[in-house]
Amino acid sequence: MRRRVLAVLAAGLLALLAWAVVIPGAPVRVEIPEGLSARQTAELLARERVVASSLALRVFLRLTGFERRLMPGSYLLRVNEWPTTVVRRLTLGLTDDVKVVIPEGLRAAQIAERLAAAGAADAREFQDLAASRRLEGRLFPSTYRLVPGGGAKRAAARMTEEFERRIGAAYAAARPAPALTLEQALTLASIVEREAVLPQERPIIAAVYLNRLKRRMPLQADPTVQYALGHWKRRLSTDDLRIDSPYNTYRRPGLPPGPICSPGLGSFQAVLRPADTRALYFVADAHGGHIFSESNEEHSEARRLYKRELRKLKARPAPGPPAPR
After folding, report:
1. Of 65, 201, 240, 275, which shows the fewest CB atoms inside 10 Å?
2. Architecture of domain 17-92
3. How distant, in Å, are the alpha carbons of 165, 247, 319, 320 from that of 323?
4. Is residue 21 very low, low, confident or very high in pLDDT (cuts 50, 70, 90)?
């Protein structure tokens, strides 16, 4: 056994010596997926002709102790690259990826703009792809490292894979089994995402909408009207609430046809585990949260209280410059 190990090491060292006299050639982009072992990474690099011998690279990794320090990502290397360069790039994570931050609550069109700004995909191509594949709500909000110019399909694939890993898994693991389908839960979660300001209020807001659905009351959710208008706006006018759209939950009963944004895991879990409340209404308070009510009378009083608080805040004098010391 010992002789066999020594023979393998000797073969690897000979390959490394032969490698040392080779001049690196044309550039080649290599994507190292997550979860690849050192052996699989060496074999991938050999197939892409970055290294002449996968065995030589494995020997080098073993001798240097870097076997478990290789990092995934997209790397721009060269054919017959120097082994020290390959290992340095992969262990330090010196990728050519672009970083794209997708916050919770963005529409597919807004995500397309961020991808275009980062140089990862064309905005129009991504929007068309999202529309044709009905990806609204399934582009999971997270921080991604994407290949520069990788295109719409590649970016969408990463986000939908993350969606299945996080949202899909949460739905499958929910006990008891949800009464809503995945699409229904996702649609409601997207509304909760746009309504909630404070994370602790998400389960209560989800419960309010579920209570309204059970009573066959219209959801009357402002974010669905904003989605129908094609942009988010702070205050809706009376004309806005009259817009003829299947997403106008002031005029159409039940849930809208689909998600209105990409919700985060917190909003989705709030739909799966809503608060135990009989509240049917909520209105913003003057401090970033909401006041929840069970009856229309309580709701009307909460609205009056909110308007009163706003008037008080507006009446306060603006803070002046600090007093001199």
Report:
1. 65
2. 2-Layer Sandwich (3.30)
3. 55, 53, 11, 9
4. low
